[in-house]
Specification:
The chain has 218 residues and is an alpha+beta fold. The chain contains seven helices and seven strands; from the N terminus they run αβββαααβββααβα. Strand 1 (23-26) and strand 2 (29-32) form a beta hairpin. It is globular and about 50 Å long. It starts with a helix and ends in a 19-residue tail after the last helix.
């Protein structure tokens, strides 16, 4: 929650410094940063968009079948969380125009985040969306080395099953956690996307500070 508050304050401050106002125009959309950002769980947003509550499914197979009926197809190795994320990507993400924190994502797609205090299938994570773009990924850091090792091992198994986006085992990170990590909020922002929003740019090449250059010919 602290990181969500920090994100909102930072974006508002940056918008005011750049534009002298809390609003920016992106195509046909007027983005308003003056109000507190909405906060809704990924499960609730998917439910609102599709009429399907994926919390009622206890396994990946039944969730995948429900997604298929919605026209969303997933890989055979997809976990329950992978299915939820796939439906969110296709049915919800592009509709999130005004600033919103998408909270409480599935645990099995968030290997570095702390388990949700009220629901073990979810984690304490938020993804900030504006103009249909993910701007920020943040979460309560998982600081238990035993649970983190288990999460990494599950990711390795998922990668071996064919999930190319699964993470590899990081022994050094687990070892570091054994020395202790206080309650911590992880945070990452897509600076280029934020620059696009604040300047009304529609091409990311216009705002990249260090663009990739072609090799110089002899």
């Amino acid at each position: 929650f602290d990181i969500m508050d920090l994100t909102e304050d930072l974006i508002r401050k940056a918008c005011m410094e750049v534009n002298g106002t809390m609003q920016v125009q992106m195509g046909d959309n007027l983005i308003d940063f003056s109000k507190p950002f909405a906060r809704k769980s990924m499960i609730d947003l998917v439910n609102e968009a599709t009429g399907v509550d994926f919390m009622q499914f206890n396994d990946a197979a039944s969730a995948a079948e429900a997604a298929k009926k919605l026209g969303v197809f997933t890989e055979k190795f997809a976990s329950w969380g992978d299915v939820v994320a796939a439906v969110f990507d296709e049915k919800v993400e592009h509709t999130l125009i005004q600033p919103i924190h998408v909270t409480e994502t599935p645990m099995d797609i968030s290997p570095l985040a702390k388990v949700h205090r009220d629901n073990p299938r979810l984690v304490e994570r938020s993804e900030t969306y504006i103009n249909g773009w993910e701007i920020v990924n943040a979460f309560s850091e998982l600081n238990d080395p035993k649970i983190q090792l288990q999460r990494f091992e599950e990711q390795v198994a998922a990668k071996e099953a064919g999930n190319e986006e699964a993470q590899m085992l990081d022994d050094d990170y687990v070892t570091a956690l054994e020395y202790g990590l206080p309650p911590t909020g992880g945070w990452g922002m897509g600076i280029d996307r934020l620059c696009m929003l604040l300047t009304g740019s529609h091409n990311i090449r216009d705002v990249i500070a260090f663009p990739t250059l072609k090799p110089k010919k002899d």
